[in-house]
Amino acid sequence: MRTLGQRLWRYRGLYLMLLPGLLYFLVFRYWPLWNAQIAFRDFQPVLGVWGSPWVGLQHFYDFFNSYYFEQLLRNTLVISVAKIVAGIPPAVLLAIALHETSRRFLSRLVQTVSFLPHFLSWVIVYGILLAVLSPSDGLLNQFLQAFGLEPIPFLTSVQTFQPVVVLSEVWKETGWSAVLFLAALLSINPALYEAAAIDGASRWQQVRYISLPGLTGVLVLVLLLKIGSILDAGFHQIFVLYSLPVYSVGDIIDTWVYRQGILNFQFSLATAVGLFKGAIGLVLIVLANHLARRWTGNSLY
Amino acid sequence: MARKILSRSDRWFEWSVDAFLVLVLVITLVPMWYVVMVSLLPFGERPSLWLPPWKWSFEAYAQLVGQPSIWRALLNSVILTVGGVFISLSLTVLAAYPLSRRDLPGRGLIVGLILFTFLFNAGLIPTFLVVKDLGLLNTYWAILLNGAISVYNLLVLKTFFQSIPESLEEAARIDGASDFQVLWHVVLPLSKPALLTIGLFYGVANWNNFFEPILFLSDRNLMPLPVVLRDILTGLNVAEYVEGSAAQAAPAEALKMASVVLITLPMLLVYPWLQRHFTKGVLIGSVKE
Predict the structure, then answer these.
(1) Boundaries of each ABC transmembrane type-1 domain copy (chain A) (predicted)?
(2) Among A185, A244, B30, B48, which residue has the fewest nearby CB atoms (within 10 Å)?
């Protein structure tokens, strides 16, 4: 029998390889966890994390009782849910259309083109949105004016900001999300379609009774994972797109944490809110993963 | 599939499928096309979807290309992208390989600890304080190190390494190869497609990254392209990037859209290659276990 020490020594090469990675996780992922205690303290940079006085749950109370609590939670959830509802049907439709078309060239072309926006930074998409939505000579507003309508300042109007956020996400990500669904469609046994065709099923019936049922597994998985990260309404996107006039409808938990913490130096309050989001996120994702494993046999981790 | 005889309903079906695909094409391309048209706009002309070629003005591009600050930002972007991919890929490979070895004592515990950081995020401020306390603010190390390992990429690579037959590694080890030698000479050569995909994931993320630079850097000379583009688009510092006298030579909209086009260009050049490998990457990620 070898001792534990001898066993570990045998693996010294592997542990040595692991060292930089472990160091990374220790410093950049676990040290922040330690710092998160300032949510329960009144953090002052001169006193440091450990030296700042405890205040218990004060920052959480302050947050829950403030008027922006409801607003942030509402904006985050509304935008997130709308993205799921508006995003999944076009992706499924696109996957089905790519799968069903008999024009190979068209299929390849659409895949290539619809995929592209996924790789663009939100800053670039912001530029494209400016071109299309600008009140003075944006494409859409030129169109509205041609029909005698008033131009709409889409990006700075309280009524239109959320739809812009949701639809720009759909524009950017539909092609990308369709890939997963397309993969699921390609894994369906072609014999099913052939048998159905011989039995006289129309193309539409084949989609309805073969393709759609073949997608339910992936659909449930995607839906659950999206629900698991429902508090992530798209920080980088909104960070670029929003501005003061639309804070009331565009401000989400993440953007607020950034402004309070980094710009207004409310370190403790912002950390408390971030922690609140992290805790709910943890519960949701674990729950979603559990359900995904039970219902589909697949899981995220 | 054999679909020779088309009934009327099937013909209608095929027609609507193709129409939908064309619609997707139009919706995706028209905004991009319009950006290009606006970027070519001369003075005194209203932007439109179809600007006749004889009216095109490349003044905006000429102005931007003549700006040293744009080149500076490009260099910054290249440093952050290339440096980031190198650091991220090395760290990810070095961590993924030992964790792919089922016999490693403590493997489950370490994977658990890493997975936990994926599920629970301490948030922006505590991370910012770490970078600040390390004295990395306003240096590229803040960006390069803070985002060095993506847990998702690490797990994908670990799963990939696990799919390599153990007998191959075993044979090398019997011949006296050390763990490093096995990784370098046996595992990595077999993992080229996976490494390429993950490298591309990191590369695109780094190239597009604008938030970490804004968060961690204060020196304007250190800012990468996306941050500069954002400043140009919001009109914050147009004068800083395009000198006063020159700013008269092209309309402001043309300048803004020309910078959008210029910054998209590098991505377009590598795109055909990206697309091929990313599609594979999605599939590597989705068919694990």
Answers:
(1) 73-288
(2) A244
